[in-house]
Write a structure and sequence with these properties.
binds guanosine-5'-monophosphate
């Protein structure tokens, strides 16, 4: 899918937002939902998606939603740092398939980085065990 086109209301994250597909939740309020990536690129990889918008990517996010949404992204990143104590935190976001985007509802990746630990490739993470993700999500949520 290109950078241009229309929003598909049946994309994976829209279904997760509607509760039609389950996720391991970290945080939710009126502006955003944060949940664990099931193919984590590192331990504690969280996705943060905006709620109440039909934005496929960051370019399409209405200006008045940018502040509230990015505030949630930062809040999750701070909690990830506090809970998991990584050596770095990488925040990634892709717009359009050629840029690496695979799910077409806007999302930011919050990826803890650990000294000496190589990052799994984007979209090449191994599927994580639900129980393991739930334990990590609990730790992050407690640090929010
Ligand atoms: P993108 O490639 O669009 O930037 O990121 C999509 C992300 O969604 C990838 O990191 C991928 O691992 C993750 N993902 C794919 N399918 C699922 C799923 O069913 N549940 C969750 N929680 N994450 C998923």
């Amino acid at each position: 899918m290109s950078l241009h086109g229309s929003y598909d209301p049946d994309n994976l994250f829209a279904k997760i937002l509607r509760g039609e597909i389950s996720c391991v939740k970290v945080f939710e309020d009126d502006a955003a939902l944060a949940f664990m990536d099931i193919f984590p690129q590192s331990r504690g990889h969280v996705l943060v998606v905006p709620k109440g918008v039909s934005a496929r990517n960051f370019l399409e996010l209405p200006r008045d939603r940018i502040g509230p949404y990015l505030e949630r992204v930062q809040r999750v990143a701070v909690a990830v740092e506090k809970a998991l104590q990584p050596d770095g935190v990488q925040i990634m976001q892709f717009n359009g398939a050629p840029a690496g985007q695979t799910v077409f509802h806007l999302h930011f990746h919050v990826i803890p980085r650990y000294e000496g630990v190589q990052l799994a490739g984007h979209g090449q993470g191994k599927k994580a065990e639900a129980a393991e993700l739930a334990a990590i999500a609990k730790e992050i949520a407690a640090a929010l």
